[in-house]
Design a protein that fits this description.
The protein is an alpha/beta fold. 39% of the residues lie in helices and 21% in strands. The structure holds NADP nicotinamide-adenine-dinucleotide phosphate.
Length: 516
């Protein structure tokens, strides 16, 4: 297939008034359609349910963004039966045809870009730049996995013995259950689904209860792009009600999950049990939480380090699995960097994302607001709060201001995933001590080092226990095809989304040998 080489989708420039006007128009248009209803989609048919999932605007919880269907085991069973049947034909559809559908989905999403940004603002509370980076990432996943499938469609080269031909190629696996978190609803739902689909599998997609409407919008994109009925099924509902059923069912071939460690481990355990009629070992791709650290040594460019700590800690209110939630500073530069970070974070503008200048929006939900508030209470007891206020009651939006605690390395706030705009700052004696503190975590997702010392960088290159390590820059915003993403330890199975090893996780490798 003749295609231009892969490149990342450019971000929108919101200093351009044309883009601002388009965004405002999209906010108005989407704003006028809030409160809509979105039934399940199984086998191309809209399926009504008795219950509903009500999704609200986290910046204004009294505003209903939409109501989606609420799957029970009955609908989960329908979806499994439909996806199993649809697999027969889809798995025999040519890789080229599947890739073309993904490329078309990318084009559809590009055409609907501002609309998606507006849904992200209303349902996810995302500032414009963050929303845009995420929609660009979703487009990248579609473009990249389409090309990856074309690269892998005939298998890969292996050796043969004389007189024989040896072939090594990939084939689709079966029904995949895709379960996503709320923090990157457009990108993660699109990416996990696109990889599974282009590899020839059928998908049951369960979005987070907090971003089910965006899930419905992603489903519309796949439908508009021409994914056949039953190949992609939209199954909103509560994880606690349908999750175990979907994961445990014998028809499920693999589970592609992104979310918390607690849920990921539960899925891993349940999927390992064989249920009656099950003829395979389920494959589990789970990507989970983080407690990501940035280490700054005494040789670093301190201004730049402070700017990037602030960006990495507070982008999307710290609700990124890759967010810097620990800054580990060499004692010689501790005071100076801390002061710069506090000053930088103080300048961030907090508010509902209805203009381009908002840096920090609300946290996603009431439970998340309560959780983050609880950690701020802990931090108040455990260390010194250098920035931030005690959160209010959240009734006028789940806003939490950027918060900084100076704490000892063993403090709870410096060890548990908070997933909010809370940064813990820890002092280290020297670089080895800083790296030891950074690695003293069950998680291992992202990490950063700011240094001009080659020895330190080389040591961190090998010894920093994280799946994605960044030197002298921010640690968030992994680019598809450029910074394949996935964690070590309790951060996941290191699947490296957006990388060259990702698609084979969704396929079975087959060896066929013919003697002549
Ligand atoms: P979560 O509570 O674990 O939920 C994730 C998804 O799992 C949701 O769709 C949820 O449904 C579903 N779920 C809940 N219980 C389930 C069960 N028993 N079986 C199957 N599915 C079930 O996580 P979250 O709060 O949405 O997301 C935040 C977490 O995601 C953080 O820990 C963050 O670090 C992590 N994350 C990791 C990455 C990465 O690439 N490593 C990327 C983004 C986010 P409901 O919404 O209905 O509960």
């Amino acid at each position: 297939m003749g295609l231009i080489p892969y490149k990342n989708e450019a971000y929108l420039d919101f200093s351009d008034e044309k883009n601002v006007a388009e965004m405002q128009a999209a906010l108005k248009k989407v704003g006028d359609s809030l409160g809509g209803e979105y039934p399940l989609v199984i086998g191309g048919k809209r399926v009504e349910t008795d219950g509903e999932v009500i999704s609200v605007n986290p910046a204004k919880p009294s505003e209903v963004v939409g109501r989606t269907g609420r799957a029970t085991e009955r609908e989960a069973d329908m979806a499994l039966a439909t996806a199993t049947e649809a697999f027969e034909k889809w798995s025999r559809t040519s890789p080229e045809a599947r890739a073309r559908i993904m490329l078309r989905a990318a084009a559809v999403m590009r055409r609907r870009r501002f609309e998606f940004l507006a849904w992200e603002a209303y349902e996810g509370g995302k500032p414009w730049f963050e929303a845009d980076a995420q929609v660009a990432e979703a487009i990248d996943f579609l473009e990249y996995y389409a090309r990856e499938m074309l690269r892998l469609k005939d298998g890969v080269e292996i050796y043969a013995i004389p007189g024989e031909e040896s072939r090594y190629f990939y084939r689709p696996m079966g029904v995949g259950v895709v379960i996503a978190p709320w923090n990157f609803p457009t990108a993660i739902l699109t990416g996990m689904s696109a990889a599974a689909l282009v590899a020839g599998n059928t998908v049951i997609m369960k979005p987070s209860e907090f971003t089910s409407v965006i899930g419905a919008k992603v489903a519309e994109v796949f439908e508009e792009a021409g994914v056949p009925e039953g190949v992609f099924n939209y199954l909103p509902g509560y994880g606690s009600e349908v999750g175990d059923y979907l994961v445990g069912d014998a028809r499920t071939r693999f589970i592609s999950f992104t979310g918390s460690m607690q849920t990921g481990l539960r899925i891993n355990e349940l999927a390992a049990k064989q249920t009656p009629g099950q003829r395979w070992i389920k494959r589990v791709i789970v990507e989970m939480g983080g407690k990501d650290a940035m280490v700054i040594d005494e040789s670093a460019d301190l201004d730049s380090a402070a700017v990037d700590i602030v960006k990495s800690a507070y982008g999307y209110s710290g609700q990124k699995c890759s967010a810097a939630s620990r800054a580990i500073l060499h004692e010689k530069i501790y005071d100076e960097v801390l002061e710069k970070v506090v000053e930088g974070a103080r300048l961030l503008k907090i508010g509902a994302p209805d203009s381009a200048d908002i840096n920090v929006g609300p946290v996603i939900s009431e439970p998340q607001f309560e959780k983050v508030s609880g950690y701020i209470n802990s931090g108040n007891q455990e260390g010194e709060r250098l920035l931030g206020e005690n959160p209010g009651d959240g009734k006028d939006g789940y806003f939490v201001s950027p918060t900084i605690f100076a704490v000892e390395e063993k403090a709870r706030v410096a060890n548990e995933e908070i997933f909010g705009p809370v940064l813990s700052v820890v002092k280290a004696r020297d670089f080895s001590d800083a790296l030891r503190i950074a690695n003293d975590s069950p998680y291992g997702l992202t990490g950063g080092v700011y240094s001009r010392n080659r020895e330190h960088l080389e040591k961190a290159r090998h010894e920093f226990q994280a799946g994605n390590v960044y030197f002298n820059r921010t640690i968030t915003g992994a680019l598809v095809g450029v910074q394949p993403f996935g964690g070590f330890g309790m951060s996941g199975t290191d699947s490296k989304a957006g990388g060259p090893d990702y698609l084979p996780l969704h396929m079975l490798a087959k060896t066929v040998v013919e003697r002549f």
